[in-house]
């Protein structure tokens, strides 16, 4: 009898552990920062971030959409589940886009909830998360045209044969590992992640994606709408929990999140929870409520994420996405107006291939000007002062993509 009671207590305890969301990011960062190489990189990255963050708060300088190449790694996945897992990864990427671009259906709840939080505005980020489809690392079993989803691939095996959450082979991607995590932890991520290090956002196999799941990868209510990944990617984009280190005097570095010292859970009525004398913004993706009850970032959080992205965007591997001609055209803009001595061009990052070129033709169809485009830059300026005023056709070629535009040079 005694044994049964103990078992019952253990069962209740484990249910309550699972009912409370738990994120391992703080603990993970404590461990990572003990490594002096990681710490030096982290400090340098945070310093660059801080400069960009201050810049962004001073000006509204707008750049082209940031395209983020994503790779998803289902550790211990079965090859026979590949199609199902690929669909799960695609769905999760769609959820990230909807949450960060503020196009998810649940966001409509903010219209009423916001009355509880005067002065706080919801924010979005001009990003496109996309599963990479080209130039995959060798030895991963993926071929050209496959989406970057690995199944049963051993991520980050070190010289001692131990696996880590870091794989230099996969530098340049936003990597998401999905595996079984112990202790009720639903996920963790490097705070202010750097793609060049091959570090990954790590998700529990019961808190990734949405829907009915594939084998052991099975989204479990109430964390079954893919929002735990939105939360962990938030850490990767340098967002802290709103309660920061858990005291009223600690700060998450975002000016428009209410100052609080504790997380919320379940599905609280907006405005019903007060910490440190402030109404807790419980529906924020960086809090601990159920997936169905989190649906917004603040503008301040998105400015912070954009500042971090601006400092790491050049680390994303280029030319890993197939781009259809529509996306290519839409991602391209001419910024000079009028066009005088220079042509200022803007493209989404990761769109140009290494051999991208531009050419100008006169109305008689003669090529009068040529220049290489730098595929690593999303904005570039080309000196065209040698050309006389008049009407020209601009042609840009990049891999198999091509576009033409009429230009009037003054
Ligand atoms: Zn967290």
What does it look like?
The protein has 410 residues and is an alpha/beta fold. It has two domains: 20-315, Collagenase (Catalytic Domain); 325-409, Immunoglobulin-like (Sandwich), CATH 2.60.40.3080. It has helices at residues 2-19, 25-32, 36-58, 82-100, 110-113, 227-236, 299-312, 325-330; strands at residues 66-74, 122-123, 127-131, 149-151, 174-179, 187-188, 200-204, 274-275, 278-279, 297-298, 332-334, 342-347, 357-361, 367-372, 379-383, 390-398, 401-409. The strands form five sheets. Strands 1, 3, 4, 5, 6 and 7 form a six-stranded mixed sheet that branches. The protein has a four-stranded antiparallel sheet with strand order 14-13-16-17. It has a three-stranded antiparallel sheet with strand order 11-12-15. Strand 8 (274-275) and strand 9 form a beta hairpin. Helix 3 (36-58) crosses helix 7 (299-312). The radius of gyration is 24 Å and the shape is globular. It starts with a helix and ends with a strand. The model is unreliable at 1-18 (pLDDT under 50). The chain binds zinc ion. Zinc ion (ZN) is lined by residues 23, 25, 231, 235, 241.
